[in-house]
Amino acid sequence: MKNLLLLILGGFAIGIILGVLNVQFNFWIFVGLLVLAFIALSYRDVKYMFLSRDVEKIEKYLEKKRHEPYYGFILELAHGNLTGAKKELEELERKWKGKKTAVFWAQYYLRVGNYTKAKEQVVRVDQQEIKTYITAGIAVAEKDYKKAEELKGEMRKDWMKFAIETELALSRKNYVLAKEKKEQALASTKGLQYYMMSKEFQEI
Predict the structure, then answer these.
(1) Does residue 168 carry a pLDDT above 60?
(2) Which residues cross the membrane (predicted)?
(3) H-assigned helices in the chain
(4) Domain boundaries, the chain
């Protein structure tokens, strides 16, 4: 958002200067340059959010943005600091003012073992695939393996399927299979999701 604002202000300022100086320029070339500038400014965010598999660098990126409660929540949850994660979520509720945070609360309650609260939150999640994924995680935690397997069959993303298979193997104490599924899950994702799974399954 900060980069986008800087780009808009910069483009506006350049437009004024060119107008004052009466400099002729091709509009579409100007637009193209702005797009390239936006990509350059945004690359760092895109890299760590979606493309990187370097856990240390992703964590450093998150630490620099920790003042924003969304990133603070990810860090606290990743490190197992559930009290800190809850504080960040409460701050996120205040800051977002009406935007849905159910997906984060569902993850939080699942992690603390309050499955009733997790179920209450997951029904409010808009994205069906995320809802299915978290519901499957709750089913594994409650040892309802049949339901978890059924829900896994509805998932289209490989990392979700492998993550649930990892959880199932762990719950059944099949640690060899859990390690295999963990590696498959990590190989099928990047960015923040890779970071979160690396932290969640780091003891396997």
Answers:
(1) yes
(2) 25-43
(3) 2-20, 27-46, 55-64, 69-78, 82-96, 102-112, 115-122, 128-141, 145-152, 158-171, 175-187, 191-200
(4) 1-10+26-51, 157-204
